[in-house]
Amino acid sequence: MEGKTQKITKKVVLYLILVILAVIWIVPMLTLFLTAIKGKKDFYSGLSLFSIPARIAWDNFTNALVKGRLLTYMKNDLIVSGLKVPLGIFIEALAAFALTRLNIKHKTGIFIFFLIGMMLPMQTALVPINVIYSKLGFLNTYFGLFYVYVGFGISYGILILRGFFKGIPKEIDEAAVIDGCNKWQLFLRIIFPMAKPAVATLVITDFLATWNEYLLASVIINDNTKKTVPVGIMTFVGEHGTDYGYLCAGVLVSVIPVLVVYLIFQRYFVEGMSGAVKS
Amino acid sequence: MKAKKGMAFLLAVMMLVTMVLAGCGNNGAGTETTGTTDTEVTASGKSSGSSGGVTEVTFWTLNTRQNAVDPIVEAFNSQNKDIKVTVAYYDTDGIKDACKVAASSGTLPNMWFNWGGSLGGFYADNGLCYDLTEYAKKNDWENKFSAGVLNLCQLGGQLSGYPTSYNVLDVYYRKDIFAQYGIQVPTTFEEFEAACATLKENGITPISTAGLNGWHVMRFVELLIEHYAGSELHDSMNTFDSSYNCDAVVQALAKYKEFCEKGYFPAGFVTADPNDTRMAVFSGTAAMDIQGQWYDGMIIQEEQDMNLYDTFAFPSGGTNRLSAFAEMTQFNAKNTDAQLEACMKFMDYYYSDENAEKYAEYYNMPLPKIGAKMPEGQPNVAKMLATAETNGTFTITDQAFPTEVADALFNVQDAIANGQMEPAEGAAKIQEAIEAYQAANK
Amino acid sequence: MKNSDNKRDWGAYAFMLPAGIIYLSVIVVPVLYSLYISLFKWNGIGEKEFLGLRNYINLFRSDPIFLISIKNNLIWIILTIFVTMTVSLGFAVILNKQFRGRTFFRGFFYFPCVIAPIAVSIIWRWIYNPNVGFINQFFKAIGSDFSQSWISDPKVSIYAIFVAALWQAIGQPMILFLAGLQAVSPDVIEASRIDGASGIKQFVLITVPLLKESFVIVIATLIVSAMKVFDVIQGLTGGGPNNATQMLSTYMYSQTFQYNNVGIGTTIACVMVIMMLVVIVPYVSFTARED
Is B317 left (phi over 0), alpha (psi -120 to 50) or beta? Predict the structure, then answer.
């Protein structure tokens, strides 16, 4: 009986905390939503920026899509991200597998070497990459963008996957070898599938990072038909003024794919799943 | 087991979608793709740029102009079978960075949008942009462009660009607010101060300004310097021939400090976004904003009532000069004669009266040409240009200064506003930055 | 025996080959290029003047803005490690529990993370605006005359920006912890509960040690992102007022792209990488040695 009331109080406290946090979290979000649906008259009314507009300006969304060409840019971004994320993760997983479960020397040294890519400020890479790409004709190609994104993603991918691979008990390898698995099979059939939460994490973070990447995209791609979303969003930041309504509406539309990917892959974070795998 | 397959399936779907999209993209944009790869070579100056008698040139400009430039380029390319122009768009800061990266990597386009002053001057100083002095002489630019704008495009001892706009800055004010409190347009500096005091007493912020990145506050500070130094000394200070560490600057900064303390600027203006200064003016919580003639266009675009606005020249004394700056198109120094000819032909078409009229909202009107048409429904444009003509102009400070010196001035502005610095120290700091710049760039 | 060991080695290295090749071309080339450029005085175009290590020496000896930037980055790192990590761990633990609406809340708290940095700056500038901003209006509404100029006040500015950054930065470490929590078997937790461990004690003694690898990942990424923090600073204050929020990344950007001191800018970038290595190498080696 006592256990039950305790359980209920716990639930109440949990929800209370969540609601308080949600209220703090929601203020900036509301600002974004309200600005996105505000026409110019309402925006400059002198009232609070947090007021509800007299008229909901749905045309902000259509304008963002048409003037900002967001549909084209979203399609382009999907091409780059859709290639980069799965292939990048596979390449990173191969390296992380070698760094945690295979017999190689200087594992920590190699690992740290691979981390430098995360620390390098991207601005320093612009000129060398631009020079190389202009010689090889990679400027204005999806491949060119894909290739640097994979390169800049390697550090983070290896960092995360290595951490999770380390958590998988070594006995599994031994058992697999006894069963006649070679290294390739061990990786593909056993270790990679066991790191599901890690792969899900990477899909989410990688997709987001690729989707929102601005700096490299703005230098490598200047062909209008091939630009990606963040470059499109910047269309609303003008020389003499920013179009806030369009910008906020554009941001809201452009994050939909990222949220969809997140919501699909977050279901791999289910309490105690790896406990089941272990047994 | 089911979950495992699910993940592999999802990743596979992701790649499949990608390939389908990439396929569509190729079908849709097949021709454009080849075009760009070709011009990329042209841009780096490695090929002659003419394949099969077609001269291909690349043009980088601001993305806010895309909706005008796209159809203009299309029309131009179809009218001129021997020229193919390709455009790339960048945002305001993006184009500065992209051009610097391209300059370092040797991949500058055939022509690019730029501002005058230290931004455009960098390309002139380093021999990256075409010196148009000869070309202008041959083509009688003296009778084509206004003298003021040609003067502003004269950088690093050469004519460094094709003038595309000439901007002058004036004080925009709310007529209704001035009328409500019985304020006359000030004709002396003292009257201006009195007007500010009246506004403040009535709960209106006199001057809307914003300090993020410094340049909007600078528009007021430079007018104070003009007031205390007079035009001659101000000019020689901005060419670094006279020291900034002088009485006039100290007085100007002291007055700026007084204005800060009296609350003549909006609260927290130091880190406010310059793009937002109009929010206070449009909503009537502030009465004045120092802006260029493009502000008329903003008033229309933001659906405000033009009848509420008027302008006056800041009463700094002397002839009440306005600050001015130019925008231009610069041309790659490596352009062949044929490429330069093609670029010029395109510029003349882009900045023709018909196109400017057709896409007026995407130009900084008026065109900097002699006898240019004034935009309709924008009464202050003609007025301000006439004022500039009679009162004279000086180059706006952030274009007169190299960026690191301008940043030193902006830091002084911030520090004084926050009460961390005295005016005398500020004047010394600016001069220190000037001397450091001169020492580093001997 | 030895022979077969060698054979195995080569096979193992083959697994690293694809990552290695791409990494060398995309990352290592720019790193070497930057180290080289940092030894010169160069405006990005003209001739390079060899300075040796003088760029480095000058920065540490006679550049007050550079020193302010280092101080600010250190403050930012400390704030990130303590605040961002704690809050995101808390979120992860709560959102790992089974309750109605969990998916909604997971999406809700992750949402700020997906918004483009430019929009984040715009929103928070409005929230902090002393005249029309939400915070000051809120105090007015509840009858308090408390008013602050937030990001324009040099004493408060960096912390105010940090709060904005926090709002957006929680998402990433949160899902890293969420993923890490999947490795914590409920059996273990259940066992400790039977032993009579209380909630908090159980969390510190049982859950935290099991999250060791997650902590390595989160701390490493947080240090790196704190060292490289750029967008939110550039967007909210541009390093101002009067350099009060200047960071190494923003100062590097100014030197490289605005002042045309490419040599100095690149040197700052190299210093950033070196500082990160100084912190992360011992940390990673230490945690790797324990196994």
Answer: left
